[in-house]
Amino acid sequence: MTPKRYATLIGLLLLLVAAPLAAAPTPNEILKKVDDVLAPEKVTLKVAMMTHRSNGVEKTYKMMIYKRDTDLVRIEFIYPPVENGRKILRKGDDMWMQMKTLKRPIRIAAKDNFMGGDFNNADVLRLNLARDYDATITSQTADAWQLDLKAKNRSVTYDRAKLWVNKSGFILTKAQYYTLSGKMLRQLELTDIKSFNGHRRPSKMMMRNTISRKTWSVMTMLDMQVGKTLPASMYRPASLSR
Predict the structure, then answer these.
(1) How far apart are CA 234 and CA 242, in angstroms?
(2) Is 86:96 a contact under the CB 8 Å cutoff?
(3) Which of 17, 53, 76, 166 has an alpha carbon within 20 to 30 A of 1's alpha carbon?
């Protein structure tokens, strides 16, 4: 083999080795893909939630979730009948709740428990990992990444988190949420991947309270329509009392 051909062969081999490395997504790109899988910019979701308390009491709720963009989310409860009229709105960092017994919506906190369960309000109304966290890849296999997340500011619900993400489809399978000191608060498991009108995502999400181990909550996706949402006028606090 002549020196020229040898040099050409070495160059081709280097390109083949470098190509997969160049195509590997950054941690932030992984988070953005996970966001797109779980909660696209415009989407309508029909969701059931079951909460299990330490005394054995279980409650079931059904709701419609409408997301217009990163900062506009509206929830309307459709079951049980006693909850008809309950609505929740997130606009930016602000959240409000409207109940049929109230004349005006009241403000609620992002870190409060959602309907007394193990998800908090931000878990349901503010899913934007790429915006809220800085991430690093701590380990990976041929099939999955493990990421370590640190909150960008104090407005984010959890100071730290660990994620397990399948490389095929950027499917989040597990998340653990921690305090700044490293104490685990909750663990989320995502299972039962389904296709909703062509959009693949986990249909079941179980949140366990790792401090009070006898409680958990499960959210089940009943329907998902990407690209469908409410008019902009429905994402104003005044619209909740209509």
Answers:
(1) 10
(2) no
(3) 17
d(CA 205, CA 135): 22
Average pLDDT over residues 55-76: 95
Parallel, antiparallel, or unpaired for β 144-151 and 160-166? antiparallel
Give Cβ neighbours of residue 131 (< 8 Å, ≥ 6 apart): 70, 152
Residue with tokens 């500011």: 153
Which residues, 6 or more positions from 24, have their beta carbon under 8 angstroms from its beta carbon? none
Q: Could you name the CATH architecture of 26-241?
A: Clam (2.50)
**Greatest pairwise CA separation for the chain in angstroms:** 87
Q: Mind listing the pLDDT tens digit for each residue in 93-145?
A: 999 999 988 889 999 999 999 999 999 999 999 889 999 999 999 999 999 99
Domain boundaries, the chain: 26-241
Residue 227 has pLDDT above 60, yes or no: yes
Q: Per residue in 159-206, pLDDT tens? A: 999 999 999 999 999 999 999 999 999 999 999 999 999 999 999 999
